[in-house]
Specification:
single chain; 280 residues; alpha/beta; 11 helices; 40% helix; globular
Length: 280
């Protein structure tokens, strides 16, 4: 099935955007792949897009009737940047929007939570994806992945708290259904993998799969906040360190069946992801 208009995928070169673009084009849907360099992507139309440059917005929206929204990276308050664009999109004929948020951020909460709250009044068809922490944090360019490869250490302030880590391929699969199914979800969707794991358990799985010793080292909230402040704005560092503290208190110790319900197949396990991406 091909949708009538094109789907604009913002952040089309990113972790979930690239996978969503690939799955949409493989299914025969028209995609405008938006990025700050208009990077060519097989099967999609590359388009220049920068959240902070409104001059790029009109051309990106031309011919589009649905959008996959990745908030501006590292922005602690994205609503002032995103909401004018979303109003322009609605006026221009976009009728469905799927927003990537986080399991840790409720409707009306900090950061993208404000955009989440506004979405139902802006679009008649919508969904907010609230995935748990990405499994790709251990295999890509995330700080955890780098410290695993360079030092064999995962640093967190999560203590023994558990997280329902999810494969970005599964997030993309849910995004595709939310964008293209005849009936939009019109709700927020908490996405997890099939099991909740502590970072000690993650380290053990990575060790077993790769044969290289990996350990989890604990930090205090303050230590992590200060460590992050060296690489991101202080407001964002405080928010990220606070998320680790919430994990330690049990906020992410859950699993959902959302991937199974929307895609018809179970969410992938972390061991499967590590075998796929660490052993190739």
């Amino acid at each position: 099935m091909t949708t009538t208009g094109a789907t604009l995928v913002i952040g089309a070169t990113g972790t979930t955007g690239s996978r969503t673009t690939a799955q949409l084009t493989a299914a025969g849907h028209r995609v405008k792949a938006a990025s700050r360099q208009a990077t060519p992507i097989p099967g999609a139309e590359p388009v220049l897009f920068d959240w902070y440059d409104p001059a790029t917005h009109t051309a990106a929206l031309d011919g589009v009737d649905r959008i996959y929204l990745i908030p501006p990276v590292g922005e602690s308050d994205p609503a002032p940047v995103m909401l004018p664009f979303l109003r322009q999109a609605r006026t221009g004929g976009v009728h469905r929007a799927v927003l990537l948020s986080s399991s840790a951020i409720p409707e009306g909460g900090p950061a993208v939570g404000t955009v989440h709250q506004a979405l139902p009044d802006l679009f008649e068809q919508w969904a907010v994806l609230r995935p748990s922490w990405f499994m790709q944090n251990f295999t890509g360019t995330h700080a955890h992945a780098l410290s695993v490869r360079e030092d064999g250490i995962i640093w967190t302030a999560t203590g023994s708290g558990r997280v329902g880590f999810i494969d970005a391929e599964d997030i993309a699969a849910v995004a595709v259904h939310a964008l293209t199914d005849q009936q939009a979800p019109n709700t927020d969707l908490v996405l997890t993998g099939p099991e909740a794991l502590s970072y000690d358990e993650v380290a053990s799985i990575v060790t077993e799969v790769t044969g290289r010793p990996v350990v989890h080292r604990g930090l205090s909230y303050e230590q992590l906040r200060d460590r992050l402040t060296a690489v991101v704005p202080v407001e964002f560092a405080v928010m990220l360190a606070g998320m680790d503290r919430a994990i330690a208190e049990g906020a992410e110790d859950r699993v959902t069946d959302t991937v199974q319900r929307l895609t018809g197949r179970p969410a992938r396990a972390l061991r499967t992801l590590c075998e796929r991406e660490m052993l190739r």
